[in-house]
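User: Fold this; tokens only.

Assistant: Input:
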Amino acid sequence: MKPTRLVPAVAAVAALTLSACSFEPSADADAVTVVVGYQSKTINTVTAGTLLRAQGFLEQRLAEIGEETGTAYRVEWQDYDTGAPITAQMVAEKIDIGSMGDYPLLINGSRTQDNPRARTQLVSVTGYNPEGALNMVVVPPDSPATTLADLAGAKVSASVGSAGHGTLVQALDRAGIDPATGVEVLNQQPQVGASALESGQVAALSQFVAWPGLLVHQDKATLLYDGAELGVPTLHGVVVRSAYADEHPEVLDAFLRAQLDATRYLVDDPLDAARIVADASGLPQEVVYLYNGPGGTTFETALEPHLVEALKGNVPYLESIGDFAELDVDGFVSDTALRAAFAAEGLDYDAAVADTSNPSVLRGTDPVCERAVDDVALAGEIWFAAGDATQVAADPTCLLRAVQQARADGRDIRGVYVPDTELGTRWFADKSVWVVDGDRYLPFTTEAAATRYLSAHPGSVPIEYERAVEEVRP
């Protein structure tokens, strides 16, 4: 079964001062320190980073240990833009636990393996998408490009060695473009690449979440390529220095159990979790909720076999860019500590491994079409400006009707989310490419996807989102 909430959220870190643990920089010099590297804006690692830190789950778990043993613990959080600097700090033995995307995870294991003190293991997953939709390629709003083939000979920004770069390389190869010579890849940090895209210095940007969604939400970009077209899982996970885990197994156990706390919190209350992550990261809540809301990222901790196989499939890409020493992936992945954490929480790890469904899905009754919301491939959602709840829609056509009715009622809308018809990717309804086929309205993440549908379905026609909202029959 899927985990259910076992530990309440920590409302105030101040309560921790009542325990034997200390978390201030001036703490007892004898305190056990754990240094955690995370990426506040990479929101698929929030259960091991931003949300975990904001809610104090790790500090609470360590405080419980301190109350039993009298040991003092100190947590030091270090925030980075990508996984590469976290790996560098782990190689230097300056970070004990880190979270990052799949390609950086492999690089982490490869680069740390020769030093027994730095050697790492992948001990949990934070979140994943079974089709690869967490990585995307975007272009400026006025770009003439409608397919990846249109980028031939152009400059593309990407963080080399990242999941976003890996998606670009694989996608170009499938499009018949040599990734090494067909485009000029500029190795840039995400925020630098975003500025380069906006200023016209590059024709496209290929990055991991939340950058594509953020730029599209800000009307600074249009989605050109949805990573889900690859059909290959992409994931984020947690690595720990094995030497640190051997010296302080109770800290790793506390971290993994705290990650379970954060995962339960996000699944149980995704809207509040989005608010917390947005406040801590500076990202818009609407963008955070795009990925962290129901039907978005699958937030699970189990090291499922299909994800391990996906990691093995990434190795050829890393070898192709000359940034990878041979790594025994099976030896790098270890679920021993996670199994123990599950058992301590009264959870069935094997059942979690076997269940690959997303624990966070839209359910309920569509108040406009007056029917059950029971198909996750069709279900949409409206987030109104007022209130702490959303309204579900059974399918995209019902979603448009709901938007039409909300506008007629004078209700302000904060965000509208809908799954892509072809790939299932959760996306902004007003940024989607829409097609009308008879009395059905169908959304697509990219123009290329809509074109594929139009070609295969004579009689269907493209339609602008605003016109669809106006014309859909109540």
